[in-house]
Amino acid sequence: MKIASWNINSIKARLPNVLKWIDGAQPDILFMQELKGIAENFPVSEFEERGYSVQIKGQKTYNGVAIASKTPITLISDEILEGDEQARYLEVEIDGIRMINVYCPNGNPVQVDSEKYPYKLRWMRELVDHLRELKVQEIPFLIGGDFNIIPRDVDCHDPKVWEGDALFRQESWDLWRELTNMGLYDAYRMMHPNEDNCYTFWDYQAGAWPQNKGIRIDHFLLTPEIADQLMDVQVDREPRGWEKASDHTPIIIEL
DNA sequence: ATGGTTGTTGGACAA
Predict the structure, then answer these.
(1) Nucleotide nearest to A161 (CA to C1')
(2) I need a surface site. Which of A108, A132, A209, A211 has the fewest CB within 10 A?
């Protein structure tokens, strides 16, 4: 079973690229983030024509997440923070496996007069607590998406550039540590423990892509039962080089 | 240090 995650940065702008990639890569399941539109405007039929069911949590202009799956999707929950206006979370069951698609808050700018960073930490705190609860209930699960956390120095081209950034600071690392220390396995690092050419995001600006100045912020985390079934993990850099590319590229796990 | 780009929108704001 191939499961992919891709921050597509607008389903409207990216539809041709997304369909092209799906037709080639043939994932069984695709997590999408940053739809940047309401559910009513999601091109459901384009996915159904290709044999996918779709679950959407949309919002005007910002955020938005969706899951496309070859086998039926059962919705468990579509928010992690109660009453959150931002569409960032989908928890479902597919093929008897609990799956969570997240678009975690970016958190920048980090400054006293901005609510962005406190919101990131609040959101992630709620996520960590919820995943702990799933562990207590002994529910095997996988969680994938744009975590907006650079786990370690090796996950970015130049740690100096990211110093102080919301994606690369102590509170974010502490939360990542909680995720891994509760027994969730970073799928990419299971298969590629020392790979430094591992990036999933390159900024549109300043030639980040041609100079390969990227960061690894799109992740899959697996409970041990799922991790035992992991066969392969790849980052597909090809779509980042296409015309009208998203600034992220897909990460694919194979169970 | 700043700005560089893309997307939603039709001027900022987010990333």
Answers:
(1) B1
(2) A211
Question: DSSP labels for A65-80?
Answer: EEEEESS-EEEEES-S
Q: Which two tokens stand for residue A2?
A: 């191939």
What pTM was estimated for this model as a whole? 0.97
For residue A122, how far is the Cα from the chain centroid? 18
A209 CA → B4 C1’, Å: 13
Cβ pair A84, A50 in contact under 8 A:
no
A155 touches A167 (CB < 8 A):
no
CATH (one of 3.40.50.800, 3.60.10.10, 3.30.540.10, 3.90.660.10) for A2-254: 3.60.10.10
Residue A7: nearest nucleotide (C-alpha to C1'): B15
Q: How far is the CA of A61 from the C1' of B10 (A)?
A: 13
How far does the CA of A81 sit from the C1' of B11, in Å?
30
> How far is the C-alpha of A210 from the C-alpha of A99, rounded, in Å?
34
d(CA A162, CA A201): 13
Segment A40-69 shows an average pLDDT of 98
- Which residues lie across from A227 on neighbouring strands? none
Distance set, CA A250 to CA A90, A94, A117, A237 (Å):
18, 20, 26, 7
Q: Give the pair of three-digit tokens for residue A185.
A: 């396995």
Tokens coding A99: 């799956």
pLDDT tens digits for range A132-161: 999 999 999 999 999 999 999 999 999 999
Confidence of residue A76 (pLDDT cuts 50, 70, 90): very high
Residue corresponding to tokens 């080639």: A24
